[in-house]
Design brief:
about 290 residues; alpha+beta; Jelly Rolls; Arc Repressor Mutant, subunit A; 3 domains; two-stranded antiparallel sheet
């Protein structure tokens, strides 16, 4: 089974790998890109976002981990490195600990994670990446092999991230399980009792856990997810604001516009204009 067609149809692919200098601009604007976890590995480059003054001036190896449905857009013009994206179907989610760790390192509740790689980490990742890329390019590429190599690559990233953070405690695991459930059900399920029941908690206890781990209540996280998807739709889809409101389960456009403005400080139309101006005037940045 192939993971990508020769003539790339991103909506039919499970895995997508390119050197940045050969990645077509159309990839950035493909609506199907929303379904992919994305690993951007910059090589001998400066970081792409505003970080500390000390790190901003450091040329080196940087890995950006971007979850599905993010609103950040990468302008990669002139950058050296690797881009590879994969769908959730390639993850072995029956291994719950692994799936939770993947969601954690990709910062599923936020926008992206960035890691600076030391030479020994580069060497470790390179060994696995070369095998993954070779299997990907093989016309008879074995899907089971690709899934296994991807898992090893991600386990290396998890291990590297764990060197910075302590292991998850029970409440951290509950919080990330909530985020997984939210990802699957946020449009049709707005009742927080649904999520609490799935996790075997009371709604009150669920909020206590989420406040402790993520500093937000379940309803705040639901609203954040709806706003994130609304922004993504406004940026990347061809739907009208009215159609976006309907897709997200809002009963009418005025209600959606009020909801959006309360949470972002601007109307959907104003946000759309702002993003268009940003993309047209700024280069080599991550934009929101």
């Amino acid at each position: 089974m192939r993971v990508e067609e020769n003539n790339v149809q991103l909506d039919r692919a499970l895995l997508y790998i390119r050197n940045l200098d050969s990645c077509p601009p159309s990839y950035l604007y493909d609506p199907a890109r929303k379904d992919f976890f994305e690993v951007l590995w910059l090589q001998d480059e400066y970081p792409l976002h505003q970080t500390t003054p000390e790190l901003a001036a450091v040329r080196g190896q940087w890995v950006y981990l971007m979850p599905p449905y993010r609103i950040h857009q990468l302008n990669k013009a002139g950058k050296k490195g690797i881009l590879f994206s994969f769908k959730r179907e390639l993850l072995e989610e029956e291994d719950k600990e692994f799936a939770l760790d993947v969601f954690r390192i990709f910062n599923i509740s936020g926008e992206f994670t960035i890691m600076q790689l030391t030479p020994d980490k580069v060497e470790r990742l390179n060994k696995v990446y070369e095998l993954l890329e070779a299997e990907y390019k093989d016309n008879s590429g074995n899907l089971a092999m690709i899934k296994s190599l991807l898992k090893v690559f991600l386990l290396h990233l998890i291990k590297m991230k764990n060197e910075e953070f302590t292991s998850l405690n029970i409440n951290q695991k509950r919080a990330y399980e909530f985020l997984l459930l939210l990802e699957d059900h946020y449009i049709e399920e707005r009742n927080m009792q649904f999520y609490a029941d799935k996790l075997g908690l009371s709604a009150k206890r669920l909020n206590q856990v989420l406040k402790e781990v993520l500093n937000a209540t379940s309803i705040q996280l639901l609203h954040d997810r709806l706003i994130l998807e609304a922004k993504r739709q406004i940026i990347h889809s061809e739907n009208s604001i009215k159609e976006i409101a309907w897709v997200l389960g809002f009963k009418d456009r005025p209600y959606f516009s009020r909801f959006f403005k309360v949470h972002t400080g601007q109307t959907p139309e104003a946000f759309q204009k702002h993003v268009k101006h940003h993309v047209e005037t700024l280069q080599n940045t991550l934009v929101s």
